[in-house]
Design a protein that fits this description.
The chain is mainly alpha-helical. It has a domain at 22-146. The chain is built from eight helices and no strands. The protein has helices at 2-19, 34-47, 63-73, 76-91, 111-122, 127-145, 148-153, 167-171.
């Protein structure tokens, strides 16, 4: 009886650690589970705090939303690998305790503990730990550096360019998108450019403009 009680208690603890206590993610996320969204939010804030040269935090860069959109486009195998990476780092405090020491999952750690723990992975003598950290950093960095606020801050946000609509627009989808995403047909063809140079002080692309106050 005692053994079964212990097994039930351990199962309940494991179930809560893996799935319980996470806040509901924002409604716009399509595939991320609450635990994945919470981990990404915590990791983004730890890896990109709002200090230094770029005063835009990882949380402000909306990295859970970026990863969510990315996962929608990935093939099943790559999608599984990315989600396995998120799960591993969130739960790895069981095997590599955070400063304190603490066995709490990553998203439940304090901000300083998260930063110190990730730094330990990046500087670890174990190559596998460094590889995991590098993989996570690559995922988050792509989203961070591609966010409109960051691109505006470093003056790399694209300008608004009114390009003519030609065969490439109705024959091929944008890179990374399925053929069903094609918005144009031959009936949408427009005249070619008249050769007017691009105004480098002109408006930014609508997707990269700062929100109106």
């Amino acid at each position: 009886m005692i053994v079964w009680t212990l097994i039930a208690m351990i199962a309940a603890w494991a179930g809560f650690r893996l799935f319980g206590g996470y806040p509901a993610p924002e409604a716009s996320l399509e595939v991320l589970a609450p635990r994945e969204a919470a981990f990404l939010d915590a990791a983004a804030e730890a890896m990109f705090p709002a200090v230094g040269v770029l005063p835009i935090s990882g949380r402000e860069a909306e990295l859970p939303r970026y990863v969510d959109r990315w996962l929608v486009l990935l093939p099943p195998r790559q999608k599984f690998l990315i989600r396995a990476l998120l799960f591993l780092v969130e739960q790895a405090t069981i095997f590599f305790p955070a400063p304190g020491p603490s066995l709490r999952r990553f998203s439940s750690l304090s901000p300083p503990a998260r930063e110190a723990w990730l730094r330990a992975w990046g500087e670890s003598g174990l190559g596998l730990r460094r590889l995991v950290f590098t993989s996570l950093r690559a995922v988050l960095t792509m989203g961070y550096l591609g966010h409109p606020a960051v691109l505006r801050h470093v003056h790399l946000a694209p300008l608004e360019i009114k390009t003519p609509i030609g065969p490439s627009e109705w024959l091929y989808p944008r890179a990374g998108y399925p053929p069903s995403s094609i918005e144009y047909s031959e009936a949408d063809r427009t005249p070619p450019s008249d050769g007017t140079p691009l105004d480098l002080r002109g408006l930014l692309h609508p997707d990269y403009r700062a929100p109106e106050a």
